Amino acid sequence: MPRTLDAELRRALAERIRFYNELGIYDFYRRGVPAGADTVVADLEVQDNQPESGDEMSPRKATAVAMPVAVEENIFEVIAPKPEQGVSDPAKALKIIREDLGDCTRCVLHRQGRKQIVFGVGNPKAELMFVGEGPGADEDQQGEPFVGRAGQLLNNMIKAMGITREQVYIANIVKCRPPGNRTPEREECDTCSPFLMRQIAVIKPRVVVALGAVAAKTLLAMNASMMQLRGRFYDFRPAGVRSPDWDGCKLAVTYHPAFLLRDPRQKGEAWKDLQMVMRELGLKAPEKATQ
Ligand code: URA
């Protein structure tokens, strides 16, 4: 009988596997279930019971753990080969991921009023990717990320970097609108983000910009405040995806455009983040048109 793992343990295992992936270790072998397999739970000491929404959180402590020996079969999905692997055309590979997603019912968001799945939009070979939190009402209506007011601001931010929206790729951590635009739950992020990880692995950007704390914390699997997260690059490899021909990319964190609409005084800080990204990509801001 397959044993069911609770969400926290599942996440901890996924994280542990991600850590091994980062070390270049992809192959894991399943031993028989030993007597007293429940000790797996005790062995796996992951301290992450911080509140979900608070901004001031200490970085998660990654504790040394024994590699668990008895886990439910599908936990290994995070490193199993994906159907798009080996497809060299990124547009086709993205289509395969979209088909794999199907009319998704993997989390509760599918029955909480979503009109449609908002997969992602843009250049399948983009050097720069933006990742937001989840679709709002406009995005849910139109099936495209960042098309509402926050999207207008994101477009302006992209333009200020000297590039166009069509040159980049834009997606979200969750692909279905959370009701009332609430913050997506950890479980929803964990269920949906593997598809985003696969999109990133196909596009192979040079830089990913995480817009806001939900995107940053999910992509980096790390609990920290925006103040702690911004202002530097992270080496990033999408979790759970084998990318033998790609070394990963840089990831920067900046404020979510919706936050900047609420607190425009932070736009200068966001611009500093984007300038750091521009330097990395060798981009120059367009000269201001003379009045
Ligand atoms: N906010 C997001 O995080 N994503 C969108 O697509 C729109 C608004």
Write up this protein:
This protein has 291 residues and is α/β, with parallel strands linked by helices. Helix content is 35%, strand content 9%. Helix 3 (90-101) runs antiparallel to helix 6. It is globular. The N and C termini lie far apart (72 Å). Bound molecules: uracil. Uracil is lined by residues 132-136, 139, 145-146, 148, 150-151, 172, 258.
Can I get a quick summary?
This protein has 291 residues and is an alpha/beta fold. Helix content is 35%, strand content 9%.
SSE layout and pairing:
Layout: H1 7-22, H2 39-43, H3 90-101, E1 121-122, E2 128-132, H4 137-142, H5 149-160, E3 169-172, H6 186-203, E4 207-211, H7 213-220, H8 226-229, E5 234-236, E6 249-254, H9 257-262, H10 267-281
Parallel strand pairs: 2-3, 2-4, 4-6
Antiparallel strand pairs: 1-3, 5-6
Helix pairs in contact: 3-6
Please tag this protein with its features.
291 residues; binds uracil; alpha/beta; single chain; 6-stranded mixed β-sheet
* Count of beta strands: 6
Unreliably modeled segments: 31-73
SSE order, as H and E?
Answer: HHHEEHHEHEHHEEHH
Mean residue pLDDT: 83
- Please state how the strands of the largest beta sheet are arranged side by side: 1-3-2-4-6-5
What summary fits the major beta sheet?
6 strands, mixed
Strand content: 5-15%
- Number of continuous helical runs: 10
Which ligands occur here?
uracil
Radius of gyration of CA atoms, rounded to a whole number: 19 Å
Cα-to-Cα separation, first versus last residue = 72 Å
Structural class: alpha/beta
Q: What is the approximate shape? A: globular
Helix content: 25-40%
